[in-house]
Each structure stands twice: as structure tokens, then as C-alpha cells.
Specification:
Chain lengths: 276, 313
């Protein structure tokens, strides 16, 4: 009985902590959503007196959001496809074929994964100038994919590792050669790996800011990240309705992916760091 | 009759021994070529190139863009005597220490521990809001926080006023603190997930056994949870240190390093010198220093992974 008050106070402490954490993390996002449907939005947090979709209508009819969205989808989908295809191909030999220097290679991938992009952005820009990749989507897609590959290879290798070799051996016994076994047995089982890798590549490319900033310099190649940055960077026009609606639309694909594929996200985020 | 009794396994062994397995296996390595080529082109070569340019006086545009010359260690000498460079290192250090160690780690770690024994609702609402902050695009996070910290009517000052305090000029008087808060907001999910999944892996039987021995919650934490989590803790420390060290978009888009360089992390210093002052060679010298610092951290990280690995085996 003596411990009863202590337990209660620790319960209250826990709820208080949860409340503060929730307010801190969710509060700012709730401002964004509320302001975007407010007829008279400001930087203050407030329940709209008059809710409206006018901000969105204005955004779609009066800005270049359709162009920005198109550019962002080109970048994100291109990066996703390229990353997934290359990582899927490379994962099988990485998992199944012992070759000299394999451990060193996997470590190098980890090093590449944690390399700060800002430290190599200057040579990447110089190379892009020489290879005429500046202001091209394929240039940005190649660079974004290259940066996504190290972690993708780790994730994909982990997934192939978990496919029992017995399944393939059974197929070989039935007369399948190695390539056929790969195509018929392994690829179909790599679905979850493809989902994790693809999701990560998509989110990374969709949310990236530095590569568009440096490589996509012409306004008709701006993805939505650059559109938003330029819009609120222009201090002269602080149009809260326009900017919040733009930010909500920009965030929507990321948030939807997160809601529908949360378990994959968690898997990919912790891959290559908890269990090797 | 005999052949029918041979089981699948020995046939496999037979196949493995006598087919030209080695040859066909090595040809599978060809599948790695496209990925290798792309990483070589845009990850490995740029890192090497940064080193080469750092010994030249190459400029972004103008006569020195094409006809640059090697100038030895001149960039490095200049860099080490540039107080703005030392300032950016110091700012980076405070930024990493404040947001990665104090913020992201402490909040992420305590949340993972608390949420483990919480119900679905708490996990979804509290844990979900933390993850949401991580999943939205970087520039959206910057825009949201620029508004929250807005002097005139931002919600941070709304709260201060409601508490009877004075309004604060967040981005002008305490730019670095503001950026640290934003980065904590964005990055806490990482530690939370890392620690959560490590906690899942601890067998419940250990706690049951300790409970039988009459151990308190605190003692269970000190003697079971903490020792089993030590590699996860170390690893998330090093990973978030490296991750925070590379943060660029938040700082660049929010304060641009200002006012007067008071929030200029090294990434912004590099960008400014290369793309605004157009000194590619000089900026690359700073890049090389940044790479070296990161390499040192990464080597520590790899060392711990190796230990972790051998313990698993």
C-alpha cells in the first residue's frame, strides 16, 4: 500500500511527458494543416474561424505547382526505379557468391552511406557540368540513385540472405539453371526488399533539397522542394495561405506512404545498423 | 532402384562438386556492375576529386575555372588561418552535441523505453507524431518552423506570451538554439526506432527471472536493459553524430548560416565558399577536412559493428 502514491506520481509524470512530446512534435504540423484551410491564415496557431479550400484552389490555378509536382514525380519515380533495379541485380551475387574482399566491400558501402553529401557536392557539380547533366532530370536521377545505392545494397542483401538456399537448390534439381532459379524463385520472394528499398529511394528523392539546389537550376526543372524554398525565401511576399497549401500538398505523398507502409519504413530505417 | 534412394541433398552436393559452379558463380558478379559503376562515378570519384581540387586554385566561373593550377597546400594554410572556418567547426560541434546527444538521443531513448510497455493508442499517437516529423520533406520542416518561430505571431511566442513571458527573437538572438530545436524535432525518430527494435530483441524471460528474484524496475533497467543495449546506444550515438554533422538543408534554408555566421555549420561554409564566393578549390579543402572528420567517426563506428558481429556469431 505504501508504494501506491509513488506509482501514481510516476504515472502522472509519464502522461505529462507524453503530452509534452506530443505537443512538441505534432503541434507544428497541426499549425500547417489548420493554416492551409484558414480563410485568413497567419503564423499564429489558431482554429480557423472560417474554413475554406480557397488556398488550394488559388495554389492550383495561379502557381506553377503542376509543373513542380510533375518534376518531383519524375525525380522520385526515376530514382526509385533505377535504385530498385540496380540494387536487386547486385543483391543476389552479394548474398550468394563468396568473393575475395567481400567483407571490405560491405564496410566500404557503410562508409559511403554515412559520407556527408555536402563534402562531395563540389566535385559532383563540376562533373555534372562536364558531363552536361546540369538542369537535366536524368542527371539528378543518376546522382540521387548513386547516393541511395549503398544503403539499398545493404537492405537488399539482407533480404536475399533470408531466402533459404534450399528453395533454389530444389529448383536446380528440377533442371533450372542458376539464372532461371534467380528469376523464378528469388526475384518473386524479394518483394518486401523491393518495397523497403523503393520506399526509401522515393522518400529520399522526393524530399531532397541539395541536389535540386545545385543541379536543377533552371526554373522549369524545379521540383516542388525548390518551388517551396524559392517561394518562402522571397521575403517580400509572405502569403501564408499559398505556402501552407503548397507545403501540405508536398508532404502528402510522404505521409501517405508512411501511413500505408509503416512497417517497411521502420525496417529500412534500422537496416544496416542494428543487426548486421 | 538405387538411384531412387539418393536423397535431394546428396544430389545437390554432387551437383555442386562437379558442375562448373565456380565459373558460373563468378559470372553472377556481373550483375553488380551497373550499381558499382554508378557508385564509382558519383560517390567514389567525387570524394577523390575533392582531394585533387583542394590543391588547386580552381574557380566556379571565370579564367580560373578551366585554367587552374596546383598551388600545393595554400588552401589548407589559408583555411586554418580563417577564423570563419574555425567558427563553422565550432558551430557544427555545438549543433551536433546539442541536437544529437542532448536532444535526439535522450528523447528518442526515453520514448522507446516508455512506449515499449504502452498500449497501441500511445504508440500510434505519441510515437506516430515523432515519426511524422521525420517523414515530411526537409524543406517543409524548415517552412513550418520558420513560422512557428516567427517573431510577430509564431506559436512559440504565443506560448511565451501565454506563460506571461516576453516575446523572443528566435532566429536573430538564438539562431543556433533554434536550429538545434528543429533538428531534434526532425531526428528523434531515428534513435527511437533503433532503440525500440533493440528492445524488442531482449527476451521477456530475462525480466521474468529478475522479477522472481525480486528485482525492482530500476534494477532491471540497470542490470538487464542497459547492458544489452550498449551496442545499440553506441551505434546510434555515432550514426546520429555523423548524420547531424551532414545536415545542410535545415540550416541553409532556415538561417543561411546567419546572422553574421552565428549558425554557420561546416556544410554551409563549404557551400558558401564554393557556390557564392565561387572558390571551388578553397571550398574543396574544407570538404576534405569534413570528410576526414567523418572518416574518423566512421572508423569508430565500424569497429563497434565488428565487435557486435563477432558476438553474434
Amino acid at each position: 500500500m505504501a508504494t501506491q502514491p509513488r506509482v501514481q506520481s510516476s504515472q502522472i509524470g509519464k502522461w505529462l511527458y507524453y503530452a509534452i512530446v506530443f505537443l512538441f512534435f505534432f503541434g507544428p504540423i497541426s499549425w500547417l494543416v489548420l493554416a492551409s484551410i484558414n480563410a485568413d491564415p497567419s503564423s499564429a496557431w489558431e482554429i480557423p474561424q472560417e474554413a475554406t479550400l480557397n488556398n488550394y484552389v488559388q495554389l492550383i490555378t495561379e502557381s506553377e505547382i503542376v509543373l513542380w509536382l510533375r518534376n518531383s514525380f519524375i525525380l522520385a519515380i526515376g530514382t526509385t526505379i533505377l535504385t530498385v533495379v540496380l540494387a536487386t541485380l547486385a543483391a543476389y551475387p552479394l548474398s550468394r557468391v563468396p568473393f575475395p574482399g567481400k567483407a571490405a566491400f560491405m564496410y566500404t558501402l557503410l562508409l559511403a552511406r554515412v559520407m556527408p553529401i555536402t563534402a562531395v557536392i563540389i566535385p559532383i557539380f563540376s562533373m555534372s557540368v562536364q558531363l552536361q547533366l546540369v538542369n537535366t532530370f536524368h542527371g539528378a536521377i543518376l546522382i540521387l540513385s548513386a547516393m541511395q545505392l549503398p544503403i539499398s545494397l545493404w537492405i537488399m542483401k539482407g533480404f536475399v540472405d533470408s531466402i533459404p538456399i534450399d528453395l533454389e537448390e530444389a529448383a536446380w534439381l528440377d533442371g533450372c539453371d542458376r539464372i532461371n532459379g534467380l528469376v523464378r524463385i528469388v526475384f518473386p520472394l524479394m518483394g518486401p526488399g523491393v518495397a523497403v528499398t523503393g520506399l526509401f529511394a522515393f522518400l529520399a528523392a522526393w524530399g531532397d533539397f541539395l541536389i535540386p539546389l545545385v543541379i536543377l537550376r533552371s526554373p522549369n526543372t524545379f521540383p516542388i522542394a525548390m518551388g517551396l524554398y524559392r517561394a518562402f525565401g522571397n521575403q517580400g511576399s509572405v502569403d501564408f495561405g499559398f505556402l501552407t497549401a503548397l507545403a501540405v500538398i508536398y508532404s502528402a505523398p510522404s505521409i501517405l506512404l508512411y501511413i500505408f507502409a509503416r512497417q517497411y519504413l521502420v525496417k529500412g530505417m534500422t537496416a544496416g545498423s542494428v543487426k548486421m | 532402384m538405387f538411384s531412387l534412394q539418393v536423397d535431394a541433398k546428396s544430389i545437390t552436393i554432387f551437383n555442386r562438386k562437379f558442375s562448373r559452379r565456380r565459373l558460373s558463380e563468378y559470372s553472377l558478379l556481373l550483375f553488380m556492375l551497373p550499381a558499382l559503376a554508378l557508385m564509382l562515378l558519383f560517390v567514389i570519384i567525387p570524394a577523390g576529386w575533392a582531394i585533387v581540387i583542394s590543391f588547386t586554385n580552381q574557380a566556379l566561373i571565370g579564367p580560373n575555372a578551366k585554367n587552374y593550377s596546383f598551388i600545393g597546400f595554400e588552401n589548407y594554410v589559408r583555411l586554418l588561418s580563417d577564423s570563419e572556418f574555425w567558427n563553422s567547426l565550432q558551430i557544427s560541434f555545438i549543433f551536433v552535441f546539442g541536437s544529437a546527444f542532448v536532444g535526439q538521443f535522450l528523447i528518442g531513448f526515453t520514448l522507446a523505453l516508455l512506449l515499449k510497455y504502452s498500449g497501441f493508442i500511445n504508440k500510434s499517437i505519441v510515437g506516430g507524431s515523432v515519426l511524422l516529423a521525420w517523414v515530411i520533406p526537409e524543406i517543409v520542416a524548415v517552412y513550418i518552423w520558420a513560422s512557428v518561430l516567427n517573431f510577430q505571431s509564431g506559436s512559440a511566442n504565443q506560448i511565451l506570451l501565454a506563460l506571461g513571458l516576453e516575446k523572443h527573437r528566435w532566429l536573430i538572438d538564438t539562431p543556433l538554439l533554434s536550429l538545434i530545436i528543429v533538428n531534434i524535432w526532425r531526428g528523434t525518430a531515428f534513435t527511437m526506432l533503433l532503440v525500440s527494435s533493440a528492445l524488442e530483441a531482449i527476451p521477456e524471460a530475462l525480466y521474468d527471472a529478475a522479477a522472481v528474484d525480486g528485482a525492482s524496475t530500476w534494477r532491471k533497467f540497470i542490470h538487464i536493459t542497459l547492458p544489452l543495449l550498449r551496442y545499440t546506444i553506441l551505434m546510434s550515438f555515432i550514426l546520429i553524430t555523423m548524420g547531424t554533422f551532414s545536415v545542410f538543408g535545415i540550416v541553409f534554408a532556415m538561417t543561411g548560416g546567419g546572422p553574421l555566421g552565428r549558425s554557420e555549420v561546416i556544410g554551409v561554409y563549404i557551400y558558401r565558399n564554393a557556390f557564392e564566393y565561387r572558390e571551388i578549390g578553397y571550398g574543396s579543402a574544407a570538404s576534405v577536412i569534413m570528410l576526414l572528420i567523418n572518416l574518423a567517426l566512421a572508423l569508430v563506428y565500424l569497429r563497434f559493428i565488428r565487435i557486435d558481429w563477432s558476438e553474434d556469431a
